Hints:
By secondary structure, this protein is an all-alpha fold. It has a domain at 24-68. Helices cover 50% and strands 0% of the residues. It contains three helices and no strands. It has helices spanning 3-20, 28-34, 52-60. The protein is rod-shaped and about 65 Å long. The termini are far apart. The model has no long low-confidence stretch (mean pLDDT 81).
Amino acid sequence: MKMIPVLMSGAVLLLGLLLSSNVGFSKPEYTKKEKKACTSCHVGMGKKELNDTGKCYGEKKDLKACSK
């Protein structure tokens, strides 16, 4: 019976860590291929949303074609 509070605390801690961790949405092969940072295509680090360059790259798969 003394283990229940310990197990519950551990479960809450684990759940909190899982919910608060940043998930990478960009693909590492893109950053290696283009030699650019993730924020070249995404609005911010760890964000799934794409900026205009990222949307263009998604269509054309060539960063040079998306340069202004």
